[in-house]
């Protein structure tokens, strides 16, 4: 029996509109006339025009642009700032779809849950106030600090089989554990959904992962995705959805599936999903959503929530769970996978110290009831034997509901008895919000059950080797303090000299007495009434928040549809990720202040003319000589002179995250055009949204022919803007020395994206459509 009545929520009825979706799908079937994968069913049933949206039904995956209508938006506190500032400038009274804000990223872990929360609320007060006041005005659900981590709250309250939602965070796919498509996007994409504008996605390819066999002993769903990350690598999922199928999907818990979907982001997948299972049904009921489960049962009976017999995938990967052993990935990249049995030898080979310095569990990836009870089982075994952890052992619960249920069921006390500390319900060390006092600047190794392990991510120390593993492996290792310890085969020595060996951990999928909600004041009303007269609070002299000024269109009223002559700011050399374009760390606090954050523009990029970092040349300095300055400063000089500019960049420009500041900032300083050897897909779209034209060199060798201070004139852009999608844009280059030549380019602009460019930004276009 579930005791959902104790959960003070009215989220029970948040059900996708199954009858409409199923009807939409019938239209699509009439066009496609072939078996569909589950991901296709969910995507195509959310087309804004299911009758004509797929054209003649030819090749779609990897080719066509889909115009979609997501059902919900979730935003975390760091990315919500820019998302809301953009939404505000669209001028609507309320969000067109139910939306929520989650305060989780800005809470710093240091002493423990209570003190950390109080301190972080004070230090981020103006941001939280802004978010809360915007939520009030526009009728958005506001989950205040302490309520939990975005993805766990979405899974517990909003996620439902067959649904399509967007989240302004790369691990949004976590909700795929409930058999839906949840996609991580930038704020401008969230604004599409919130303004009721069709959200455009290039139809992804679909990888099928066929699961057979049975997990046993220490192997968990986390190990499945760690293993798969090793096989696919960090790029293997780019532009693709991972859809799992096969008998063994049904033997995993819903939260285990969520862990797998969460880390699909690590291979670059658009999202991951699973067919509806009875464990999903149980999870929906246990979290107070019986009506959603019932509706999903009916939709599943009509074949909506699984792939059709004979559906074809772009690639199929076979995984036999019976062969899977615990896996440890890292350091510094999530796709360096080593089976647990070989990990000791791996450490030795590398010549690394066989020493663990901290063990961290929880986060959005792994803080389910099942994870926590499995971990508590190990802690209890150790406690009974008289052991405590050898290293700092920290746990971040994913939500207030998990925290309170852990406490009630003595999980918390068991962890504390062996030396564990339970942190606030927030991201904490997973996003670097960890005030770590030891090992500063020293090489050391940590194990976490989180999802990402880029350099410096957790404690800001680039010498910290961060390994990813299941929560149970992390916990067992915390008792040994050594990296070569294999809890499946090795024993620890008790103070008495006796050997002690862990039994494989046993956890519980769901609490037998139901979840307890904990502090009920954390739960907002579902889709509250908007209050159009409420004021959005931004302090006058705020250094952290600033209203957005719309970007002006470079084409004015349309009398000239070529760009004005553009000056080249610089030629960027080599790898240039969104981190190079808009650095994180101390700059995070300016996420809501475009003027302030723009001071970090390209500060770690390499100038191909000279090879220096953060150096650019101003060829039009008032002194009459070429002056050298930082990149943001030269960009600012050009802005001050009203000189629009262009950037020449190398391969895979903008790889990494969906960070839209990397597109907003150059645009803010006056960038109109970026010419690349190639672009990373999400960043390329972000540029288009902000009104920057991304062009590809038709011949990559032309990259070296353009330098700083050269002037570029476009020829053929007017054709594109006037609706000729096949228009070829030629760049007429006049070098600093006065030489002229032409360079052919390619573009990937869809008809809608052309309208954004002409309007100066997607937001300008949306605003013009509203009026
Ligand atoms: Fe937060 Fe880490 Fe997840 S930053 S949202 S806990 S990936």
Q: How would you describe what is shown here?
A:
There is one protein chain. By secondary structure, this protein is an alpha/beta fold. Helices cover 30% and strands 17% of the residues. Strands 21-25-26-27-30-29-28 form a seven-stranded mixed barrel. Residues 1-5 have low confidence and may be disordered. Bound molecules: FE3-S4 cluster. FE3-S4 cluster is lined by residues 104-105, 149-151, 169, 171, 363-364, 427, 430-431, 450-451. Residues 40-481 form the Aconitase/3-isopropylmalate dehydratase large subunit alpha/beta/alpha domain. This is Aconitate hydratase, mitochondrial. It holds the Pfam family Aconitase.
Keywords:
771 residues, alpha/beta, Aconitase, domain 3, Aconitase, domain 4, 24 helices, globular, binds FE3-S4 cluster, Aconitase/IPM_isomerase, 4 iron, 4 sulfur cluster binding
Number of domains: 3
Span from first to last CA? 53 Å
Bound molecules: FE3-S4 cluster
User: Would you give the CATH topology of the largest domain?
Assistant: Aconitase, domain 3
Bulk shape: globular
Estimated structural class: alpha/beta
Name given to the CATH homologous superfamily of the largest domain = Aconitase, domain 3
The tally of strands reads: 30
Question: How would you concisely characterize the structure shown here?
Answer:
It is found in: Mitochondrion. The protein is an alpha/beta fold.
